[in-house]
């Protein structure tokens, strides 16, 4: 029911990624290793129309139910552009598996903002919870330069789908896929994220998930 209208309209992006790193917070399903830099081609499907950017689409006042961005707005009251971009990209990925869309949670967002501000001085790619002491799921992202957007971060996480084998419920080829599985985790309901431009001029982003995902022996969907 949630995705009847969404799946009729496909919004997609194509962007090349260099100089970025991502990390997911356990409970780990497959272990944690910093992935090598990769090129992000598509989240799903086709490119945007010629001369049109994702920001162009986000800034337009499109009719209700025409895009997933509009749909996600209903789950993110009083959110600003960054929050809606985070939520939009997560719910788009979840829609591909007909998972319940996430709701933006102000308390989870406060936690994410707190941690992003802790990293503002050094932009260190570091998780907020000590190893083994997680309370929320967590994906983090670092990008060189100040242009990285929330959609860029989520696209980087979702691009790991190609490394996830549903049949074996594991990552293939010694690659990382835990960021992707957390994004689409079936039991996660609430999300809060933050983006900060660090004193170094680079970007740090973090998303927290409640309840957390990536439980050993369970599939994401």
TrEMBL record:
UniProt xrefs under Pfam families: CAP
Keywords: Pathogenesis-related protein, Plant defense, Signal
CDD domains: CAP_PR-1
InterPro entries registered for this protein in UniProt: Allrgn_V5/Tpx1_CS (IPR018244), CAP_dom (IPR014044), CAP_sf (IPR035940), CRISP-related (IPR001283), V5_allergen-like (IPR002413)
GO cellular component, one term: extracellular space
SCP domain ranges (all copies): 81-217
Source species, domain of life: Eukaryota
Keyword Signal annotated: yes
Classification via PROSITE patterns: CRISP_1, CRISP_2
SUPFAM superfamilies membership: PR-1-like
Signal peptide annotation: 1-24
Function: Probably involved in the defense reaction of plants against pathogens.
Name this polypeptide is given: SCP domain-containing protein
Species per Swiss-Prot/TrEMBL record: Amborella trichopoda
Biological classification of the source: Eukaryota, Viridiplantae, Streptophyta, Embryophyta, Tracheophyta
